[in-house]
Task: inverse folding
């Protein structure tokens, strides 16, 4: 595996509002290799957007270690923060319109987001990027004149304008139908793979599985399990793994817990090559 571009270890994030504290991330671990394309899934409120904001350099984690592209995001100064956002990361917000200036055309939006290269090259690079993302015929439209999937495509183009090493996209397909989702993911991953850009995409869409290297599940502010696809006997099969943190904690899949009615204590039995979990309900008194 190539050196990771993203390394999160034990990330904790607490929002403090008045006298209320919300623990949005509680010890999250995640590694993403350079050029790897990863999807993040998990229920609403599980901490996905919080993680994206931290990786984008917009929020500082309350505790834990976060390294992206050689930058320590727990201690970014103002100047380094600007350089980081310009050179390392591109971010599509959960509300993609937030990425776009409403009074600028598609082409102008991408040009305005581009800070690298001489001005004349910027215009042709912007037009080229929009073409690859399927907006070649819409260069002079404003965001309000675009369909939903085109708005998402334009927001992706602005996030990719500076050729980031890491693209972050928060639910880019949330409001799209199946046909638009498949087309967008296909075009986006072509652009990513060609440039070797790593990406973390938040999506609940099972269709994403065809386009990404793995899907990481977040539950209650932690990465709980991960699915990847491996070749076995000439066939691609789905491989689901639980993630163990450094302290040895794992989250059991909710379906397994429900099936055996596990709660409170369980008995662990070590065998030569596995650990067996046995319900201990009803014999808590030994
Ligand atoms: P997701 O993107 O998975 O839906 P979020 O990261 O948006 O989850 O939110 C995780 C938790 O943090 C939720 O309980 C949410 O209500 C809370 N939260 C998110 N943003 C804020 C904020 N700015 N202030 C207070 N609580 C927040
Ligand atoms: Mg969210």
Result:
């Amino acid at each position: 595996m190539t050196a990771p571009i993203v390394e999160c270890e034990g990330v904790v994030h607490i929002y403090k509002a008045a006298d209320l504290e919300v623990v949005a991330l509680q010890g999250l671990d995640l590694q993403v290799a350079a050029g790897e394309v990863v999807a993040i899934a998990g229920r609403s409120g599980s901490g996905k957007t919080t993680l994206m904001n931290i990786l984008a350099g917009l929020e500082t984690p309350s505790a834990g270690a976060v390294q992206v592209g050689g930058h320590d995001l727990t201690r970014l100064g103002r100047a380094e923060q600007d350089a980081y956002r310009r050179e390392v990361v591109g971010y599509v917000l959960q509300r993609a319109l937030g990425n776009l200036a409403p009074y600028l055309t598609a082409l102008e939006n991408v040009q305005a987001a581009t800070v690298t290269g001489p001005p004349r090259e910027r215009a042709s690079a912007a037009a080229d990027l929009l073409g690859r993302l399927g907006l070649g015929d819409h260069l002079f439209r404003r965001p309000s004149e675009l369909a939903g999937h085109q708005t998402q495509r334009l927001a992706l183009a602005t996030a990719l304008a500076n050729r980031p090493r890491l693209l972050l996209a928060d639910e880019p397909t949330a409001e799209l139908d199946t046909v638009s989702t498949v087309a967008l993911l296909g075009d986006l991953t072509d652009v990513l793979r060609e440039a070797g850009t790593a990406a973390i995409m938040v999506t609940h869409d099972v269709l994403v599985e065809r386009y990404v290297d793995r899907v990481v599940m977040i539950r209650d502010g932690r990465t709980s399990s991960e699915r990847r696809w491996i070749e076995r006997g000439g066939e691609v099969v789905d491989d689901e793994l639980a993630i163990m943190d450094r302290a040895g904690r794992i989250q059991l899949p909710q379906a397994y817990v429900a099936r055996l009615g596990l709660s409170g204590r369980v008995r662990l039995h070590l065998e030569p090559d596995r650990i067996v979990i046995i319900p201990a309900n009803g014999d808590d008194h030994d």
Summary: The chain has a mean pLDDT of 91. Residues 93 and 115 are 19 Å apart (CA to CA).
